[in-house]
From TrEMBL:
Bilayer-spanning residue ranges: 7-26, 46-65, 77-100, 112-132, 144-162, 168-189, 282-301, 352-371, 377-398, 410-435, 441-463
Family to which the UniProt record says this protein belongs: Belongs to the polysaccharide synthase family.
Main location: membrane
The keyword Iron is annotated on this UniProt entry: no
Subcellular location: Cell membrane
Protein name, entry field: Lipopolysaccharide biosynthesis protein
Source organism phylogeny: Bacteria, Bacillati, Bacillota, Bacilli, Lactobacillales
Amino acid sequence: MRNAFRSGMIFTAIGQYSNVLIQLLINVVLSRLIPVEEFGVVANVQVFLVFFQMFVTAGLGPAIIQNKEMKEEDYGIVFNYTVLFAFLLAVGFGLFGHFVAIIYNNSIYKSLFWFMSIIVFSEGMNVVPTAILNKELRFRTLNLRLLFCNLFGAIFGIASAFAGFGVYALILSAAIPAIATLFANFAVVKIKYTKSLDPQPFKVLWSFAKNQLGFTILNYFSRNSDNLLIGRFLGPVPLANYQKSYQMITMPNTVFLGIISPVLQPVLSHHQDDVKLIRETFLKIVHVLGLIAFPLTIFMVMNAEEIILFLFGSRWYAAVVPFSILAFSIWAQMLTSATGSIFMARNHSKTLLKTGMISTFLILSLTLVGINFSKITYVAAFVCAAYILNFFTSYWILMTKVLEGKLSDVLKQLISPVCISVVLAAALFLFDHLITIDTNYFVLLVIKGILWLILLVSCLLITGEVKKIKSVF
């Protein structure tokens, strides 16, 4: 198991890190070429796109991975259903754009929704081949595909922005990778195609997938309620600034959880009845994640202004304060995001769904409170509080109901990461107040980043944490 986990993480790291760098490059370039208002429009479309993508995948990917009794012809039958669903939902997404255009009183939504319906269709057709690659632990193929398809999309997106395509450059940067992935999947995954629509294979998967789909829908609303409400009540400019802030705090999840979560379920699902093994493995992972999440939270909070203004320019100054507030929840989001794979690996999709209900209630309730103040800084503060509360509730349910442990087992793993982070925070605070450097944001970030990294590595060596990290990987 350890070898499979290590191999999966190496190749997933290649795919995810390259993806983050490519997406950051696209974001940095297009932020300087496309007006803030147009970013706000696309932000609205992307919120609805994610919603339709949930339905087009229908939780089938994790269900295919978890089910060890599927035959070759079953994959072909399920693929037929995904093509049918993908087509219907793609058409539905395009038509939905007319409704959104009326709500926001902007006709551009009509064409944008039809263009992005291509993504819905491609994502639906990618479900089965991608799940097969994960189930067979073919992480190398998965992530090299991700690298080249995203690079292809970045080239098209940036080139079209310089060519004056405006808001459509953002659409192309997202649509091209989805289409390229579809062709790549057909090349590397051999599905036994059939004309059959026998419902039995789909029914077997649906018993697991329906709970996963329910959780995904709830997670969607909890994660996007702030964007939807800000866009509706505060307008496109506050939405653009808030989303820019939120987008930055999700990057650590993508960078670090993106290399662990995709590997956890495929590997641990082979040991779903060995509770002790999964619990002990997961607690080690939580400890390592804590050593990353807490120090990273400190760095992002204390360098919010430099990060936003260096990456996106002075026009995005209004995103600095929301980002600094939201960044305080990075540790909670990173640690909570790791729980979903464990619920699924233990085949507890019903418990995962119940956890999603509680999370949605917490996040949506506090978001509504923040919206009432009519400022994105208040929204950011209440959303931050919601994510921290969600961490405690999610881990209590996971440990007591799924892993036969206690919440205190998790909290003990976080003592050392918190102590190290306090040292880092004190050092950065003293640097800011005792040392004055007259330079640009890039140089300042490099200097503070080097100081942060030296102190972090020193703390890890002094406390013996490096050995614990090596023992996991």
